[in-house]
Design a protein that fits this description.
134 residues, single chain, Four-helix bundle copper-binding protein, 5 helices, mainly alpha, Csp_YhjQ
């Protein structure tokens, strides 16, 4: 099952959101939330945990913002595009920050490389949806 298949069944969809962009943003944000949480946990298990303090913090912040974004985007009853735009902007910023931090550790920690990729995907999905909204 895909995100698109569930959101297209909604009896009262928000006309202002394109399904393809919306589905990708929901999927990317949900995946990023899980990936960031896993990366933070992996960072805590590293011998150099003190050197990863900022990475752990940005992982947690990004995970929380992404989880909230996915949840809010999945609500299609009514329309609150102002909130959606602000949330997408915040999600994009959290993902960019987390990706930058994780990329600085990517050569040493595979979990950081994977996390940075998930963050960049979500950052792009948020940008694309913002562009589609206008």
């Amino acid at each position: 099952m895909s995100i698109s298949s569930i959101i297209t069944t909604h009896p009262n969809p928000t006309a202002d959101l394109q399904v393809d962009h919306l589905a990708e943003a929901i999927d990317a944000a949900a995946a990023c939330a899980v990936t960031c949480a896993a990366c933070a946990d992996a960072c805590l298990a590293e011998d150099s945990v003190a050197d990863l303090r900022d990475c752990i913090r940005t992982d947690h912040d990004c995970a929380d913002v992404c989880a909230t974004t996915a949840s809010v985007l999945s609500r299609r009853t009514g329309s609150n595009l102002g909130t959606v735009k602000e949330l997408l902007t915040a999600c994009r910023a959290a993902c960019a920050s987390c990706a930058d931090e994780c990329e600085s550790h990517a050569s040493m920690h595979e979990h950081c490389r994977i996390c940075a990729e998930a963050c960049r995907r979500c950052e792009k999905a948020c940008t694309d949806l913002l562009g589609a909204i206008g």
